[in-house]
Structures are given as C-alpha cells and as structure tokens.
Amino acid sequence: MRLFLHELQAQQLLFWRNREAAFFSFLFPIILLVLLGSVYGDDEIDGVRGSTFLLAGLIGYGVAATAFASLAITLVVRREAGLLKRVRGTPLSPATYLAAVIASMVIVIALQAAAQVLIGRFLLDADWPASPASFLAVLVIGAASFAALGLAVTTVVRTGEGSSAVVNAIYLPMAFISGAFFSPRDLPRFLEVLSEVLPLTYLLRLIRSTFIEGETLASSPGAIAAVLVWGLFGLVVAGRMFRWEPREGMSGA
Questions:
Q1: What is the pTM of this model?
Q2: Residue 101 lies in a domain
Q3: How does pLDDT run across 78-96, given as a tens digit for each residue?
Q4: Is residue 65 within 8 Å of residue 28, measured between CB atoms?
Q5: Mean pLDDT value across the chain
Q6: Is residue 199 assigned to a domain?
Q7: Which of 40-44, 63-67, 235-239 has the lowest mean pLDDT?
Q8: 6 found inside a domain
Q9: N or C: lower Cβ tally within 10 Å for the chain?
C-alpha cells in the first residue's frame, strides 16, 4: 500500500506538470461545457434543458478523454521511451504501477466532474444530478471500463509519435456519434445505428438518466451491461497483448 500511495502521488505530479495533458484531459471538456452551454443552454434537447443535457454529455466526454485517450497516449509514450520496461526492474510491481496510473486518472475524472457540475449549476443553470449516488457509481463504472479500453488500444499503437493521432481518431468521432454534444437522433440513420454499438453511447445514457430522471443503476441494466462488456473486452485484450517493452522498429526503442 505504501508503494502504491507513493506512486499515486508521483503520477499526480507528472500529470499536472504536463501542461498539454492537463489542458486537453482536464480543462478542454470544461471549456467546451462553458462554450456550448452558453450558446445552447437555454434550448431544449430531447425534451430537457440544453444546459443539463450538455452537462451530462460533457461529463461523459471527460471520462473518455481522461480514462481512455489520456491513459492510452501516456502509456504508449512511456513504453516507447523505455520507461515501462524499467518499471519491471524496480521493487514496484507492474500491477501496482498500473493501478497507480489508473487511480491517478480517476482522481482527475472526479475533480473534473465536480468542476463541471458546479459550473453547470451556477453558471449555466443546469440541474444537479437527481440521483447523486447512482451518478457517482456510473462515473466509477465508466472510468474503469474506459481505462480497460485505453489499455487495450495501446496494443495497436506502434509509435509514441503516432499515439495522439490514433487515439484521437478513435475517441473524437465516438464522442460525436455517441451524442456527447447533441442528440444522436439528429444523426443520419447509418450513424445512429453505429452509435448503438459504441460504449460511450451507453455511458452517456447512464449519466443523463441520473441527471434527468433520477434513475438508479437497477433501472438501466442494459446500458450497464453494455459498458461492462466493453470494459471486459478491453481487459481481455490488454491482459493478452499489453506490452511493457518498446515495439520493434521504434526510434525510441
């Protein structure tokens, strides 16, 4: 436990000292909330106030940006720089190291979600979560599942230089198609069908249900199952294919 807490503190320092990561993972979703909420906050989206709809959507977007995109890019860059390989030669176990990295991302998500809820409520007049306990549980489930998917996607990215391009090419279209910024019902039919297989679609449904309807997790078993199945898929792929050594042919190897 002492090693875990020490490494968690180190990971937090590394995250906040990396200005680019802190901006795009932590601040960018908050900036989007302020900008989009200021423009569309008074509109009605899917029968609810636009500010509340956007608040829930951008909280989900923040989970994906941090637990999936930031985690994947960070681990690929460290792998290709040889840092992950060195971890295996220290007293710190690989499992403890990964647990600390993921826990650090969860802390960022918690701080970000709290900031978004407060900004949404007091600046944009959005609603509070109608079911706070379910809202927190959904954040935990979403963070865990998207972290597993982030670990999985590192197995297909070959270079540190290309990590941002590959990861952004996955999660940014997913955010649009899943309806983080607007209702997926406004999409063309083929994109609406595609949205039904994306994990972020179901995470957004769960978050919005805790805001708008005050539903508990027991009220949305299908959406919970979808998020968990995607997380399990990511965990299986990562468990079989995650690499600690730089990929062959890399300049940073």
A1: 0.92
A2: yes
A3: 999 999 999 988 888 999 9
A4: yes
A5: 91
A6: yes
A7: 40-44
A8: yes
A9: N
